[in-house]
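Researcher: Next sequence.
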Amino acid sequence: MNIVILSKGPGNYSTKRLKEEALARGHEVRVINYAKCYVTLESGNTVVNYKGGQVDNVDVIIPRIASNLTKYGSSIVRQFEMQNVFTTTSSIALVRSRDKLRSLQLLAKSGVGIPKTVFARETADFAGVLEQVGGAPVIIKVARGTHGNGVVLAETRKAALAVMQAFYVESVNFLVQEFIQESAGVDIRAFVVNGKVVASMMRQSLDDDFRSNLHQGGEGIPVKLTVEERKTAQKAAKAMGLPICGVDMMRSSRGPLVLEVNSSPGFAIEKVTNHNVAAKIIDYVEQNAKARRKKDKVGA
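Model: Next structure:
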């Protein structure tokens, strides 16, 4: 098969691992910087261009879209979809996963456990918002963000009101989320491929930072999921319409709670667990690329 990996960084570990595994299976592989692609549109004919030529003869695309380029990257993915090219991540699922509110709405609708959350923008009823999630301490997040950026722990009522006031003044959409004390600084990343958890690790902050994300200096160790945690990860992936994703969860007194479903999860989990995640993704591609492309049935 002719596989295109849409990635800004050919030297990125995840990109290199996908390319290695695909080449080892005898596939043709190209790494294309989607940010440098452009699209030509005319009636009955749409073309993706890159470095002065058309990107054609493509069987599969594997999108690795950066969060700050979600809108443009998803447009390029959509163009390939319109050409009936198989994609491991649909454009609509990509956009959906980067919208924290929409993600939580879909997870809640599907019965997936999540921390209690309030979404707000221009309300001045800060006390009411705080009361809805059980009072301080609380987590306050910018509605769009990744890698732990745009996330604040407000430990007191005064601090929480001040942060909400700042977001209110700047007209920023934000989420206020209950703080799960028993899981502070610790979460679990479950890597899902084709509806199955293929690797899992626990991420622990190295200092007193409440964020455990590896991009924020967290440390990963292998972890064995409980049956409930495994089912929760699978259910979350299905709710988001993502056959390949990283599901981030916390262990709480009321069971696993999903924080986020990442549509372009990193492959650091391979180094932590010694599980060949890239090979599982290429397995998925080989099993599904030739099949009829299924319509995304999850809400927008």
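Model: The mean pLDDT is 90. The longest helix spans residues 227-240.
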